[in-house]
Each structure stands twice: as structure tokens, then as C-alpha cells.
């Protein structure tokens, strides 16, 4: 910001200097024109020969005589105007004229910018967001793995009813998570893999978990290995649908390829733990959240890309973009806790990086749970926190290098570490913010 201010100051004075130079040139030109006009009037005029053709002597031609008569219409040379503005003996009129012209131009320019700003919609943070399934440049992938849609299944872990879905390689993928068969003990998969070169398909392998000798599944992991080739002329795309049965309690989706993940509209998935992590450094990575998907502990993370949508808070919800420049724009809806008889707070944790983050906390009119929110900006990206619909009542610790806060009051009790409060200083809700960048808190 200071650098922008310096450039603006230099430009202003440069314009003043330029306008002064033009005004000085114009002044000199006007003086020259006056002098030239006076010289034309002061030339000596010669009278012509007698127009009546009077008598002449032999051998004489007509003789022109000097006209010594001063024309009545000839005026005196214009007097140079006295300077109107003197500063320490110098004529400052040109300086003041230049300042007036430049200030007028700046006023017009800033007025134009103000009008344009008023007519332009405020940025939402979602500008440039990719479209699910349409962002990958792999339209020429005409070869299909095994020439069909693969339908397979994976056993869940025996002890914890858990499962891990892992994708490696250089493929570009979409994953849709949906409700599975209510009576099934397995996670079902529908997989379609295509490539623009047939030889790339030889890299593909599907590795579902297997039972141990005693019939149990100690480690439920389904590994999808995609293309091992990363050159620009090679392309592989995979589309996977994961059907989650109600018996599954823990699901971890771990993606080491560029990927886009969504939860199918209308799904009513209920889990103890749900983790979705995209490790690939690709700006088109995308996680589309859905508030109808409930997990006691929900954690969504991208190292680069987007996390967008709505998410429920049962016990604890975590959003992370802190390892890169990912963008997050999420609305949070607290539900009743997993143990409906308890008064456990709705815990929200966000850890963001360089990218912009917008978080909205929207309470439920049917019940009020204590709020415990922790917001960290690890790489100083702008963070917008909106709690206008949270029915907030409690303390705030706003530890941000710079911030804008509305709807809050300074905390009065010294030594507590809290900086602001909403409602009552003794309220149950707590919000902590830690950032070396800018934070906007709107309550």
C-alpha cells in the first residue's frame, strides 16, 4: 500500500510540472503573436503614384513618396499584464493554474472510479471457481479401461467399520459420494477410466482390501493407481462413484491426483468420522460440501484449490487450506450433538493459507448450542467471518494484525486475553482469531 501511495504522489507532481510547461509555452506563444502584430502595424508605408495621373517630366516614371502620417487607428503596443500572484518575488500564477487543472482532472478521474465502483458488484471470493467435472482438459480421452464401467466393492474394517479410498498417479478425477445399500456390509464403487493413449491404461490397477485368514479385515483400503506418465501430451481421466452404506462409521478419501469431490444431492450420509484430503497442487481441485452429510467429526482439506458449499457441525468441523493458496467459502450449520442429551459446544476450526476465505455461521432457530470457533490464518490471506445469524452471546479474542469488526463491543475485564464480546461478557460462546493479515468479523 505505501508503494502505491508513492507512485500516486510522483504522478501528481509530474502532471503539475507538465501542465506548467504547457502553460509557459502557451504564454510565450501569445507574447510572440502580440509582438508580431505590433511589427506589422509599425512598418513604413510608401504612397503610391498619383492615381489621377498628374503631369510628369519627360523621362520620369511614377515616384512613390513616404507616408509620414500616423494612422488614426493605430494603437499603442499592448502592455504586458502584471502578475496576479507573487510569491517571494516570483510569478506563481502558472503554478496555481496548473494545480487547478490537475486537481480538476483528478477529481473527474476519481469521480469516474467512484461511479464505476458503485455500479460494480462486490467480489464474492468465488470468481474463477471451477465447474465440477468440466474443468479438466482431457476431452480427447477416447480409450476406456477394460472397455466398460467397472463395478466393484470393498470390505469395511471389521473392528471399526472404517474404510480408506486412496488414489495415486497423474490422472484427473471426479469423485461423487452417495448413499449406498442400507443392508450392505461393503462399500460399492462405480469406476470409469479413460485415456487419450491406449498404452496409458496399462498403468491402471485397482486394489481392494482382502480378508485375513481368520475372516476379518484389519486394514480396509481401496487403492486406485492411475497413469504414471505426466507429460503434457498424455491425459487420463477417472470418474468414481462411492456408495456408502449406513454401517460404515469412518471414511477417509485421500487423493494424490488433481481431483474434484462432491456429495450427491439428497444424500443422507451419517458417519462418525469423515475426512476428505486433496494433496495435489492443482488450482482446479474442488470439494463441494453438503450440509445433509453429517459426521461427528468432519475434516476437509485442499493443499491448493477450492472448498465451497454448506457443512454441518455435529461435534467438530475442520476446514483447512493452510498449506497453499486454496480458497474456502463455506456456510456452517450446527446440528444437535451426537449425544443429544449433552450440552457440548459446536466446535469449528479453520486454518487458511494465502487464498481468500469466507466463513458464515448460521444458527438454528429451534435450539441454541454453545459456539467454540477457532480461526487461524497461517499465511496471512484475507479472512471474512460472518456471525450475523449465529445468535452469538459471548467472548471474542481478535488477534489480527489488521481487522474490521462490526456488532462487537470492547471487552472490559482486564487481563483475560479477550478483546471483544457480543451480548454478555459471561456468555458461553467463544471465538478466537489469529492472523498476521486482515480479518473481517461481522456480527
Automatic annotation (TrEMBL):
This is Uncharacterized protein.
Amino acid at each position: 500500500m505505501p508503494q502505491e501511495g508513492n507512485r500516486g504522489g510522483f504522478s501528481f507532481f509530474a502532471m503539475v510540472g507538465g501542465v506548467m510547461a504547457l502553460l509557459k509555452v502557451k504564454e510565450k506563444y501569445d507574447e510572440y503573436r502580440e509582438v508580431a502584430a505590433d511589427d506589422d502595424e509599425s512598418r513604413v508605408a510608401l504612397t503610391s503614384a498619383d492615381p489621377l495621373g498628374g503631369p510628369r517630366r519627360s523621362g520620369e516614371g511614377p515616384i512613390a513618396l513616404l507616408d509620414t502620417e500616423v494612422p488614426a487607428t493605430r494603437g499603442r503596443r499592448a502592455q504586458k499584464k502584471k502578475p496576479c500572484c507573487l510569491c517571494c518575488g516570483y510569478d506563481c500564477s502558472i503554478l496555481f493554474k496548473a494545480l487547478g487543472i490537475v486537481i480538476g482532472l483528478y477529481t473527474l478521474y476519481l469521480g469516474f472510479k467512484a461511479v464505476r465502483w458503485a455500479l460494480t458488484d462486490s467480489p464474492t471470493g468465488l470468481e474463477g471457481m471451477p465447474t465440477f467435472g468440466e474443468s479438466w482438459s482431457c476431452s480427447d480421452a477416447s480409450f476406456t479401461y477394460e472397455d466398460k464401467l467397472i463395478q466393484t466393492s470393498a470390505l469395511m474394517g471389521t473392528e471399526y467399520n472404517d474404510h480408506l479410498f486412496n488414489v495415486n498417479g497423474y490422472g484427473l478425477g471426479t469423485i461423487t459420494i452417495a448413499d449406498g445399500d442400507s443392508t450392505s456390509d461393503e462399500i460399492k464403487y462405480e469406476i470409469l477410466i479413460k485415456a487419450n493413449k491406449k498404452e496409458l491404461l496399462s498403468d491402471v490397477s485397482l486394489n481392494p482390501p482382502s480378508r485375513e485368514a481368520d475372516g476379518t479385515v484389519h486394514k480396509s483400503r481401496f487403492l486406485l493407481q492411475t497413469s504414471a506418465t505426466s507429460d503434457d501430451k498424455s491425459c487420463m481421466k477417472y470418474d468414481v462413484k462411492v456408495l456408502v452404506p449406513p454401517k460404515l462409521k469412518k471414511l477417509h478419501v485421500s487423493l494424490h491426483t488433481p481431483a474434484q469431490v462432491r456429495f450427491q444431492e439428497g444424500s443422507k450420509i451419517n458417519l462418525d468420522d469423515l475426512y476428505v484430503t486433496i494433496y495435489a497442487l492443482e488450482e482446479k481441485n474442488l470439494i463441494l460440501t453438503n450440509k445433509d452429510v453429517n459426521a461427528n467429526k468432519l475434516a476437509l482439506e485442499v493443499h491448493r484449490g477450492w472448498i465451497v458449499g454448506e457443512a454441518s457441525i455435529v461435534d467438530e468441523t475442520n476446514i483447512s487450506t493452510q498449506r497453499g493458496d486454496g480458497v474456502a467459502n463455506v456456510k456452517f450449520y450446527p446440528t444437535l450433538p451426537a449425544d443429544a442429551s449433552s450440552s457440548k459446544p459446536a466446535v469449528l476450526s479453520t486454518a487458511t493459507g494465502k487464498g481468500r476465505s469466507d466463513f458464515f455461521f448460521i444458527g438454528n432457530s429451534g435450539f441454541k448450542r454453545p459456539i467454540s470457533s477457532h480461526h487461524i490464518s497461517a499465511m496471512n490471506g484475507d479472512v471474512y467471518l460472518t456471525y450475523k445469524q449465529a445468535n452469538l452471546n459471548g467472548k471474542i479474542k481478535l488477534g489480527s494484525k489488521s481487522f474490521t469488526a462490526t456488532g462487537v463491543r470492547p471487552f472490559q475485564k482486564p487481563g483475560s486475553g479477550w478483546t471483544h464480546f457480543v451480548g454478555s461478557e459471561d456468555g458461553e460462546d467463544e471465538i478466537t482469531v489469529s492472523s498476521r493479515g486482515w480479518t473481517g468479523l461481522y456480527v
